[in-house]
Each structure stands twice: as C-alpha cells, then as structure tokens.
Amino acid sequence: MSLLGLLSDYTIQNVVIGAALLGLVSGTLGCFAVLRKQSLLGDTLSHAALPGICLGFLVAGTRDIASMLTGALITGTLAALVMLVLTRHSRLKTDAGLGISLSLSFALGVVLLTYIQGTNNAAQGGLDSFLFGQAAATLRSDLWIMGGITLAALALVMLFWKEFKLVSFDPAFAATRGLPVATLETGLTVMVSLAVVVGLQMVGVVLMAAMVIAPAVAARQWTHRLGTMVLLSALIGIASGVFGALISAMGRGLATGPLIILSASVLVVISLLFAPGRGFVWSLLSQWRARRHLRSQQVLTTLYRLAMEHKDTTYRTQQGMVDTYYGIGTRLSLARLQKNGLVRLRGQDALQQPGWELTTDGITEAQRILDGLGHGDRR
C-alpha cells in the first residue's frame, strides 16, 4: 500500500496523530527532566501510572480512557511528590528517591492488575496492553483528550518559561531571586506526568520513559541554547512518533510502541555520532586534526633546532634524517608545512642533495612555538 493509501486509513490516521502529539509533548517536557538530571523521572512516572490506570478502571467499571488517564495522572503525580519529599527531607539522593517511588508504585499496579484480572469482568480484557501500549486501539475521542493535555502542558511551558529555565539551570539562584522553587519543581514534575499520560496508550508503561528522555538527549547534542533544544527535541519527538507509526503500518504484525522508541533511539545514535562539536565522529576528527597539527609543529621546530645547531638559517635537512629522528615518515607533515609557506625543498639538482630549508615565515613560526613552550632557542 502506498503512503497516501496508508494515511487515508482512519485507524492509521489516529495512530499517526497520536504519535505526533506524544512526540511533541514528551520532547518538550523531557528537556527539563534531562537538564534537572532527573532522567529516571520518566521511568518512575510511567510505572507509577499503572496503579492509576487500574484504579480508574475500577471506579468507572469499564475501559473508560478519560477515567484511566485521570487515575494515571493522579498516581504518577503522587509518586513524584513522594520522591520530592524523600529527597528534600532525608539524606536520600534523587536517584534513590526515584527508585523507591518506581518500585512501590509498579508493585502496587501489578497487584491491582492481577486483582482486576481475577474479577471476571469482561471489560478488563486487554487492560494489560497498557504495559507495552496498543496504538491501534486509539480512537478519535482519545486524540481529543491527548490533544487537550498536550495543549495544556505547552501553554504552561510558555507561561512560565523564564521561571522553568532558571529553576532547571540554577535552582539556588532562583531561590535567592524569591522564586518558589519547590512549587516550580513540583509543577515541572506534574507536567512530565502529563507527558507520560499522553503516551500510555501509544507506547505503554514500560517504554514511555525512553520517549521522555530520548528526544531531549538527541537535541542536547546539537545546541547550547534551551529554546533551540526544546524546539529540536519537539521536532525529533514528532519525527520519531510519525516514523514509528508509519513503519508499523507498512509492516505485518509490527508493534507501534517499540518502533516509535527505536526511531527515537536511531536519532539519538545519529546525534551522538555526528552532532557538530559534540558527536563522537566530530571528536575523533578533531583529535586527528590536533595530532596532525602537533606533528607538523614538532617537525618545524626540529628543522629550526638543527639550523640553529649549525648556525645557519638556510641549513638544509634531508628527508631521511627527519624520518630517522621520528621513526616514522614525515613527508606529509613537511608537505603541509611547505603548503603553508614555512619550509621549502631546495637543492634538487645533480650537484646538491635535496633538503628541507626553513623560510623566513618558518623561522618566525618556530620561534613563536618554542617561546610558547617556555624554552625558545634564539641565536
């Protein structure tokens, strides 16, 4: 089936729109979790949403998406507040507090899920799909709920942009400015809970943590500005959601949630490898250039020292002598120096053996290098 044919399908439209909304809200809010060094927060909140889903089902008596997502938001927020209380009023670090909240919440959720499965309620069929997501079950009415949550979260980010930015980078300074740091941090945590709630049906409890973190991690490699990072993270999240949904639709029996996460992971890997200034490949290239530059400087200063030893600035050093001194071929380094006008090859006739001679610029540059090292040798 062609791409246009896929997009004309009602179910696929719902999945693609839902995945785009998920990528937008999780990419935006995930930036603040990453900058606050709370990457485990998404994992905690997503696992803490499971008991809320179960409680929402028990209250409604059926699989009412609004009731279950409301329950997920409440329990996710409570788990986050427990983490904040533990870290603020005890000696526990943030990761320990998050781990405690995650374990307790998920254990409670599994107990409630087991209880519901034992009630013989016909409506509970497929409730465990929230563990790994069931994107195909997304309805147009679900999209309105997801869209409303996304819109509310983005509105809050825009409204409190300066405050959230300051709290994320320097909470101590924010406190000295009189900002309610605890309230703002709680607000950010609740908003990440909103992002988790949006993604529960699409990617599930287990994989939602990656959707909160992956777009932000990828975006962080490309920029040093928060505004640009948030925008890139949102775009990466949307692209991951849409690509994953379309690949799932074109395949046979391929789960949408894991494909969305794999799409985001591919973008993370690309960013880690190729982002200018931060990427692994960029770092290797910079190191290679630095080594090459250092080797050229070493060869240039060696030619200068030999010339000074012979008290002749026009002294010619043969290629073999330089190679023997360094134990490796130096022709490429000398060629670079020649290209930059620092050395020249002279005496290539029958009467003289060819040798490398410093130019005036080469002498000046060698003296500058040696003076910078603190042991210049001017004669």
UniProtKB/TrEMBL annotation:
Gene source species: Tamilnaduibacter salinus
Membrane-related topology note: Multi-pass membrane protein
Record's keyword annotation contains Chloroplast: no
Record-linked CDD domains: TM_ABC_iron-siderophores_like
Compartment list: Cell membrane
Keyword 4Fe-4S assigned: no
UniProt name for this protein: ABC transporter
Predominant localisation class: membrane
Family: Belongs to the ABC-3 integral membrane protein family.
One term under GO cellular component: ATP-binding cassette (ABC) transporter complex
The organism's place on the tree of life at top rank: Bacteria
Biological processes, Gene Ontology terms: cellular response to iron ion; iron ion transport; response to zinc ion; transmembrane transport
Native organism taxonomy: Bacteria, Pseudomonadati, Pseudomonadota, Gammaproteobacteria, Pseudomonadales
Protein keywords: Cell membrane, Ion transport, Iron, Iron transport, Membrane, Transmembrane, Transmembrane helix, Transport
